[in-house]
Amino acid sequence: MTGVSRRRGIGYAVACRLAEQGAHVFIQHFAPHDEQQPWGGDDLDAVRAGIRSVLVDDAKFGDLSADLSQPDAAARVMQAATELTGRVGILVANHARSGGDGSIFDLTADMLDAHWQVNARSTLLLTRAFAEQFGDAARRADAAPAADDPPVPVEAGELPAAIDEFATGRVIWLTSGRMRGRMPGEVAYAASKAVLAGLTPTVASELLTHGILLNTVDPGPVNTGYLDPEVADRPLSGMLEFLRTIPFGRYGDPTDPARLIGWLCTTDARWLVGQVLTSDGGFALSN
Hints:
This protein is an alpha/beta fold. It is built from eight helices and six strands, in the order αβααβαβαβαβααβ.
């Protein structure tokens, strides 16, 4: 689980949800990023303690500080996670770079590269490192043959093995819902997050033959502190009036997308693959 450094964040809510469901939990965090934001950082010891408090039975917990803008960071995170339990079964790529952005008229190559490196490149590299644990052997010999293989005779009453019998890996990417709407002043961020939504079907089709199901979640507008008046990173004038137009009359809470992501990691969600799912409480309906 990446991007878990603040108790107000989506990453923390997801980590706690998975812990409550009985999973071992390994988190990546990078406090220097949060300390540069208006809302500031959090007490990492309190973050660790909160997750540990909801672990089930003998489930394990581990963490690592890593700057995912660095090319080797994804491999280091995955190596540390596998050392905790021997194998990682779920990857939730929640991390994101905030700040240092601008409008199309402000953009520079450095701004675009900084958001691409963290939001898109590291997510793809983490996914590759995760998938390499499974290898080609995850595709059982009696599963569906390749398109150019000769037909295999099937005895009466036999059926080929179904993919969901061995699809045990789960990858969840987080994108931004503003790919469907305006996000002025955050062009680099929006571009890097749109990459993940656009690539979901392609990467999901490749992972599927390795026993891994990939889906992407748009968590909608979730207040992780950036909408609190004292630390808001944007003008809040008119917010109360706007809230009255939203079906639920509120912005999302981190536990809202956490419930969806927790479900996607269960066997109940094994029929869902390659989808970009929106969890926004009907926010898009009010636009």
